[in-house]
Predict the structure.
Amino acid sequence: MRVVILGGGISGIAAAHLLLRESDAPDLRVDLLEKRGFAGGLCTTVSMGDFRFDLGPHNIHSTDAWFDALMRELLGEQYRSRSYKAKVVFRNKFVPYPMEGIDVLRGIPLHTSLACAGSFLWSRVESLFREWEDEDFERFIVNRFGRRMYEVFFGPFTEKTWGVPGRLLSADLGRQRVGIFTLWDLFKRTVLGMKPKAAITGEEDPFLNQRTIYPDHGSGSVISALLDPCLADPRFGLHLSSEVDSIERDGGGYAVSAGGKVFGADRCLSSIPVMDLLRMLRLPDPGLRCISTRFLLLKVSRESVFGTTPWIYFSDDRTLFNRISEPRSMSPLMSPPGATSLCVEFTTAGDDRVRRASGEELLDWTVSGLAGYGLLRPSEAGEWRVIDWENTYPLRLVGYRESVAAALESLSGHPGIIPFGRLGRFEYLNMDHCVLDARKAVADLLAGCAAGAGA
Ligand SMILES: Cc1cc2nc3c(=O)[nH]c(=O)nc-3n(C[C@H](O)[C@H](O)[C@H](O)COP(=O)(O)OP(=O)(O)OC[C@H]3O[C@@H](n4cnc5c(N)ncnc54)[C@H](O)[C@@H]3O)c2cc1C
């Protein structure tokens, strides 16, 4: 059986790892095609001399026993629990993130917090008389926090990050990203000492899920741990700088062209953006879009910039960057003694100022922005590099679920191609979810092969 895996991020690599481990097909051949010159996708850890950078902070928040056991087996001691809390700049103050009720009130002047409290109470009264309808992200927040909180914090932050107004974004974004489910939940928990419904029913509790795992040498360690056994397996081939540019039916299978070569496949597992896969198969464009990120990696000649805080969100329009992480705050082994580094994220949703900026401009915006908060002296900024990454986040606009369903439905005419992974299925998946998704894709592939053999 010839299996071609499209995309060499964590999803593709985990699929190769699990397939080689679990298949007993005597003629198994697995080829993994990756367009970049390195494997790992967004989970890559980039080295600049003695400094290591992840592309944005990459912590593992798994609550899955199977995933944890696999990682412990592969990473051993390095699968290390850590405890830290991020911050957000809110009205020029640095407050813990996710914000808790009292932090929110600390960040804003008294009259604004009174207006927020009033609008929150009004939303509670309103909710007694009508069902919440979360038509979009804006409504999701207004229903739970009140209109004023949306205008003061969530609206501007969201628009800065996603490049579109909250009313165009799906409520799913709120369900997944907002740490506090409602201020009312927070009040019940902290003041009345009540357990949330999720904890009672045994579901994942967003309040309690503070556990974080971070390998000593960055998220790239997970990639090496999954990939190294594949590289030692004669049934496996890794093809870097091999961008898939066409897929054609070929007998009962497919001919996949990448990097000037053609790979014959009985089955394909595809973790490349589903929009690209559909285009290659000449299927309708479902109109799905992503946002992209420009990462500025910067060495800094001082011991620490953020202290123990691993990353800070910059929610206001004072700066153009959205988030800055300090790898050293997650693991001291990410930079040499006496020095530190920063990974600065600028998101771009189209042909905007960020996309058009030169590397020097991104550096200048970073240094002057941080100097404005008293966090960095310009003379401390050292060597830097910009990494441009297309399609970092699926843009979940209102109605995106229907578009994704239509895209996956149109692929049903190709049962030999299994889409999976973050952009393969256009789902907001984290690293652990990607590995679980790879496990499911491999199980589906093996089940399909067994059914084919039995027929
Ligand atoms: C800034 C940021 C911070 C994050 N933080 C966390 C975190 O703290 N914790 C967490 O668990 N997750 C985090 N994530 C999410 C995590 O990075 C992703 O879930 C995961 O890396 C997605 O893996 P993937 O393999 O599905 O996709 P990708 O990593 O996107 O891999 C897809 C691969 O396909 C390749 N490709 C694309 N087109 C082609 C083609 N035509 N031919 C060949 N190859 C192609 C790409 O080059 C890429 O290597 C974060 C993501 C971002 C952007």
